[in-house]
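TA notes, week 10

Several of you asked for a full example with nothing omitted. So below is the full record: structure tokens for the whole chain, then the designed sequence directly under it. When grading your own attempts, check the secondary structure regions first.
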């Protein structure tokens, strides 16, 4: 059974940067998609960025040019570099992996951007 552990959240000033990390334990051999989602207070959870095991990426329009998703397949880790943060990026960020038709979520990490 796959488990995900996120780290790297925190408080940052507007215009600053943060880097989130998500480590997967258990077997994720074969094709899979890892990604980051976020949920702000009173809003639905939304996609931020995804990356396949082959390296193909997809971004929400709101983060294109500011966020970069990457992964280290040898370490079963996915990273999210977030630059030029603004108050609208404040949310709980969740890591997710899709594999063999199953979604597994991490526990979430809080990102707060102060203006």
């Amino acid at each position: 059974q796959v488990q995900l552990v996120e780290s790297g959240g925190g408080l940052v000033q507007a215009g600053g940067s943060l880097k989130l990390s998500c480590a997967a334990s258990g077997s994720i051999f074969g094709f899979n998609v890892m990604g980051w989602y976020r949920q702000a207070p009173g809003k639905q959870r939304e996609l931020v960025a995804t990356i396949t095991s082959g390296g193909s990426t997809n971004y929400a329009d709101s983060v294109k040019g500011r966020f970069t998703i990457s992964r280290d397949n040898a370490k079963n880790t996915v990273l999210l570099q977030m630059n030029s943060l603004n108050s609208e990026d404040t949310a709980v960020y969740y890591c997710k992996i899709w594999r063999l038709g199953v979604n597994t979520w991490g526990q979430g990490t809080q990102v707060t951007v102060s203006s």
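The longest strand covers residues 91-99. Use that as a sanity check on your answer.
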